[in-house]
């Protein structure tokens, strides 16, 4: 498998605090990599450095052969291909689900409203919300809002999807609907990096699980290896804490 995303020696400092300490990360085409670890371990910061929502202090990020740290790179173009779904849904409350999805299609890609609407409706259908196109975010459950956010990212036809704690703001009974969409993306061959505490989903869906603590990747391997026989003491400790 060919690497589509590669970070080398990634450091991110906030003042005196080093959130990332020389992280090396590789994502292969078609792979689902799950990133786990205690709160504050640098998982979300790493994800945000991949598309320069956070500017790395040091290191390199290569995406599909392009050095994202090169100042001549059109980072907005690259972000369209590196789709991102956040913990908070970031939907516009005054817009319908359809209009939330079409906004980037029209403003960024310059598509006509009719074509944008067609794409939006297809994407909403894909995430199981074809009947909610005219609903506003306030009329939708948290799980439905997150699925609209996923549809919005998918509409731009990304090569890779980054998920940053996509279910952590949801009530437990709403989590399943979002994970189901992610599972469907997985089955369709979407390349994905998922930062999440949904360990059951990690076991079932991930090709590789990465364990982070204190700004470093301490261990990685198959779900079986990481969950059943972790080698690093810190990984074992984490598994005991979460009851795995």
Approximately how much helix is present in the residues? 25-40%
Element string (H = helix, E = strand): EEEHEEHEHHHEHEHEEHH
Q: N- to C-terminal separation?
A: 30 Å
User: How many individual β-strands?
Assistant: 10
- Cα Rg: 18 Å
Query: Structural class of the helix and strand makeup?
Result: alpha/beta
Describe this structure in words.
With about 240 residues, this protein is of the alpha/beta class. Helices cover about 40% and strands about 25% of the residues. It contains nine helices and ten strands. The strands form two sheets. A six-stranded mixed sheet has the order 6-7-8-3-9-10, sandwiched between helices. A four-stranded antiparallel sheet has the order 2-1-4-5, covered by helices on one side. The longest helix has 16 residues, at about 170-185. The model has no long low-confidence stretch (mean pLDDT about 95).
Record the SSE blueprint.
Blueprint: E1 3-14, E2 17-28, E3 32-36, H1 43-50, E4 58-63, E5 66-67, H2 75-81, E6 82-85, H3 97-107, H4 113-126, H5 142-155, E7 160-164, H6 172-187, E8 191-195, H7 199-205, E9 208-213, E10 216-221, H8 223-228, H9 233-241
Parallel strand pairs: 3-8, 3-9, 6-7, 7-8
Antiparallel strand pairs: 1-2, 1-4, 4-5, 9-10
Helix pairs in contact: 3-4, 3-5, 4-5, 5-6
